[in-house]
Design brief:
CATH superfamily of the largest domain: Glycogen Phosphorylase B
Strand order of the largest sheet: 3-2-1-4-5-6-7
CATH architecture of the largest domain: 3-Layer(aba) Sandwich
Order of helices and strands: EHEEHEHEHEHEHEHEHEHEHEHEHHH
CATH topology of the largest domain: Rossmann fold
Structural class: alpha/beta
Length: about 375
């Protein structure tokens, strides 16, 4: 009997985040075809269902000092090298910069695949140059990243692999529970998802929402994601919209909350491939997004059709002064109001969102991965 090929997926942690989710979904999708082993550095705050998966925790969490980080890389790399040898791994696929470093330093006994999951990863040129040289394949979450790596680093091993989406399962999960909201009225709920991080540009969203409230008195805003959001709560109070903004926190199943929303808004000035944008579209929610360096344009702009509203990228300069409202925030507010006021306009984007979401199916994701695995191991 021919043994299955063995694939190792390396990820620092499995707390809520884009590439963490993709890692778990990749394991589930590839399980029928290969023996899958997930390696994590720290098992704290696991946010995803890993029941039935083969997960090894190295118990080597983050070190704060520069010396500690360097020692950690060496220890993690030695541990992963031993596991690759012990498990007779054929391909090791890593997610994110710290996992990629460990993967390329843990020996070439297995094929090395590194995943570039965000355009922010591109800022460290030394790492990208290292990955381009040492890896057997560089998997990029957007075409823009692939093209830049291929051109700037003369890397012929870069390919684009969009994140997987199981729209049917997503809809099932959306109906698994009743969302608990602070408002009885569920009309005109704007939603955005993301951890508390300046890169998400949530101050832009709050200020635009305050403008929307001046004309649309039943508008509400919900932000789903990890963090205490204390400074944003203060900004909401200063903008006099605190009763209409709900910081929902981390949700292991955010889809019931997404499903009751009327509009999804993304205000990030950096993304890799924004999973939540596609997830909202799969639920038939119209979207407005900033044209940050990677992700939204590839998702929302097709040949002859727009699948959502794409606005100019917003300033990365954080401004928590409630008295300062920029022109870009005014433009965002205007687009939000149009979605609420023009039903035909909104309905068109609802339909377009669902059509576009189908283009990112998990079936396509698996087909591409399996073809690359077969080519790598022949």
């Amino acid at each position: 009997m021919v043994r299955k090929k063995r694939i190792m997926l390396i990820v620092p942690m499995l707390h809520q985040g884009g590439f963490e989710r993709v890692c778990v979904e990749t394991a589930r999708l590839l399980e029928p075809y290969y023996d899958i082993y997930i390696v994590i550095f720290d098992s704290r705050d696991i946010a995803y269902d890993i029941r039935g998966l083969n997960v090894t925790d190295l118990h080597m969490g983050v070190k704060e000092s520069l010396a500690g980080k360097s020692v950690n890389i060496l220890k993690r790399s030695r541990a992963v090298r031993k596991l690759k040898h012990k498990l007779e791994i054929d391909i090791a696929y890593s997610f994110g910069p710290s996992a990629n470093i460990v993967n390329v330093f843990s020996g070439r006994e297995a094929k090395i695949w590194v995943g570039i999951r965000s355009y922010m990863d591109m800022e460290n040129e030394r790492k990208i140059r290292l990955f381009s040289k040492r890896a057997d394949k560089v998997l990029c979450c957007s075409r823009r990243i692939e093209e830049e790596i291929a051109g700037k680093y003369h890397c012929s091993k870069a390919v684009t692999l969009y994140n997987p989406l199981d729209a049917d399962r997503l809809k099932e999960r959306a109906g698994e529970e009743e969302p608990v909201l602070p408002w009885a009225d569920r009309e005109h709920i704007i939603v955005s998802m993301g951890r508390e991080d300046d890169v998400k540009g949530f101050w832009h969203l709050l200020k635009a929402f305050a403008l929307v409230r001046t004309e649309c008195r039943d508008a509400k805003l919900m932000i789903i994601g990890e963090g205490d959001f204390d400074e944003y709560k203060t900004l909401a109070w200063q903008l006099h919209v605190e009763d209409w903004v709900y910081f929902a926190g981390l949700k292991r199943n955010p889809f019931p909350y997404l499903s009751v929303s009327s509009l999804y808004v993304l205000t990030s000035y950096h993304e890799g491939f924004p999973n939540a944008l596609i997830e909202a579209m799969a639920l038939g929610i119209p979207v407005i997004a900033t044209d940050c360096l990677t992700g939204p344009r590839e998702i929302l702009c097709g040949e002859g059709e727009d699948y959502g509203v794409l606005l100019e990228n917003m300033s990365p300069e954080k401004n928590m002064d409630a008295d300062v409202i920029t022109e870009e925030e005014k433009r965002l507010a205007k687009e939000i109001r149009r979605m609420f006021e023009d039903e035909r306009y909104r309905a068109g984007y609802c339909e377009a969102a669902v059509r576009r979401a189908h283009d990112f199916s998990d079936k396509y994701y698996v087909e591409r991965l399996r073809s690359w695995i077969a080519m790598s191991l022949t």
